[in-house]
Amino acid sequence: MEHTGQGGAVRRRRRPAVSCITCRKRKIRCDRKAPCGNCLKSKGSSCSYRDPPLSPPKATTPRSATSLPNDCVDDENAELDVASCFSITTPPTPPSLVNTTNLGIAGTFHIHHESRQGQPNVGAFSIAHKTRYFGQSHWVNSITLVRDLFAILEPHFRNNSSPIVGCMLECKGLAKTLKSRVLPCWPYEPLFDVPPDHDDLLRNYISTSESIFRVMHIPSFTRDFHALCTSPTPPTNAAFIVQAKLVCAIGATNTDTVLRQEATQWVQDAQTWLSKPDFKHQLSLQHLQSHILLLLARKAVGVAEDMIWISVGSLLRTAMYMGLHRDGVIGTSPNTNLFTSEMRRRIWNTILELSVQSSLNSGGPPLISLQDFDTKPPSNLNDEDLHLDQAIPKADGVFTSTAISLALRKTLPVRLAIVKFLNDWSSPGDYPTALKLDSDFRAAYTLLAKFLSHVSHSSNAPLTNVNREAVVNHINLLLRRYLLALHLPFFLPSLSRPEFAFSRVVVVDTAHRIWRGVFSTSDIGASNVAKSSACFRTVSMQVIIVLSTHLRAQAADPISGGLVREDLVAILEEAKQWTWRCIEGRETNVKGYLFACFVKANVDAMREGLTEPEVVKMSLEAAEEAIRKAREVLKERLRSLTNMEPSCGPATVLGNQGETVDICDGNNEWEQPQQTFDFFGGSDDLQGGTGMMLADGDNWFLDFGNGLLV
């Protein structure tokens, strides 16, 4: 584009210089490298750029010279420069080092290391496996810490010198049979068989989930829920039936009653109903509430919880389409009553929370920034106050039914920054930025911790219906996961490079606090972990990997003389007991228990100073004993169900390669068609998430991570 200045002189818009200063003076073509080829040939020349060098130009398709403005063509190189035409600054793609690793029993992993702003490669930036891409905050990136352990197992699996492969195949078939007999069929009719303990389920939901993630107006929902459960006539409000089922499903994860099958059915029923092609009716607050409850229930019950990040994207855009991200527009205008305005703000606040948390869990970018909305946080009001248009919000620190979610909201900016730092491909990924985020996070966490301390000891009336210990534990787990994810990329180099020693201390200390706070042998820890899913299982996997790596490094350090922290060794022993309790509590994925036993034996052998062959032998023996023990539990459970008809489908399953494995009679004759056992081969059904660890499609290790609980 040309502009005419004073006196009619034609001037051209200044474009950024893409050649180095020396090449511009010599008027020769520059390859834009640092240093460029011309300056390398002229050894006496120094190569420098007035502007940062751009990425090497890509081949372009010839175009007509008259079809583009003159300013889009570089005088020196006569190449298309679209960015300068529209004043767009496109950050250069950082060079990527891809390390392809075939772990044999685990499959092929493509580990990406990004070189960012001259920073050294310190850890995996992302991992690609089959059809999945896991960003830096996804727990599976910690697999790089235990690659040597898989190297120990691989030769024995390939040579069939260990019975682990056969036992694992047998356990996998047993698990599929058990699931086929207890999981409900899909789809369902929109009916609601009122559970006998419905009051307890509602109370559990209100005292835990609703205290943190504000979704419903509790007084009105409680009234309608009791009317639904006590009505002598069949209810007709399908939308409210769906919400009641989801509330019961979430509440079931915090009760001693085993309701996994019922909770799974309620979640799938809601998923079916919300999937109907009635698009205009989806643009309502009630639909948003149902969608949020569905995501919370999927996370709690373990129904494809690893895919929540995808569903949150649809939820976020629906809310933005309805204008919830803007204050002063639809639903928040001066003529809107207080109830509608505050409910919109509460729902938007919860959607933001789900967006950030799902981004951390999945390793995907949050796809939302603080500049994308101007909706204010909800007011600090009790639910009973929303019917009063002149209600005055309480001051900060005054306890209301919304106070906990507001306190958590104050930490959202730094948590969002951490997730962007970890998962955005254009993030610098440098250690100074990580330390700055650590400092900001600790400042925000300190304020939240003071508030939670008041929650634990306050006698304020609005908190009488809150399960304070469960809420505080849940928030502490949620927040500490960000700190763990922030420093985990620097954990492996910290074992040998002192400049990252702070990250090693933070990772080990955070893992220790997470386990003691949530995964202890207390009733609350056992209930939340053994009967729910998602982050509990994921973090438990990270804790076991991190602490075992730290202990093995300590045992191998000649300076320490083989001395290790006994409290961390005790956690590995507790992990064995806890994963075993999960199997006894109707869990079907045995890989978590197998891995915990294998790692514990490996650490113990190294502490005793055994030779490498002795360490391998001791580790394998522990794994073999664990898998045999778990197999017997699954067999006994199947025998107890022999008189029950499977609730869905035939009593046969397909092996990894499609071969049919007969499992109807529960005998010991098992077909093993594979020559090589794929440890990551897993179920790809909707209920994979109910496995012993994370259920990520076809991966046993991902299944294992979700299934450790998941």
TrEMBL record:
SMART domains linked to this entry: Fungal_trans, GAL4
Domain annotation Zn(2)-C6 fungal-type: ranges: 19-49
Region annotation Disordered: where it falls in the sequence: 45-70
Annotated Gene3D superfamilies: Zn(2)-C6 fungal-type DNA-binding domain (4.10.240.10)
Keyword annotations from UniProtKB, A to Z: DNA-binding, Metal-binding, Nucleus, Transcription, Transcription regulation, Zinc
Pfam families assigned: Fungal_trans, Zn_clus
Alphabetical list of CDD domains matching this protein: fungal_TF_MHR (cd12148), GAL4 (cd00067)
Entry annotated with the keyword Nucleus: yes
UniProt name for this protein: Zn(2)-C6 fungal-type domain-containing protein
Species this chain originates from: Podospora pseudopauciseta
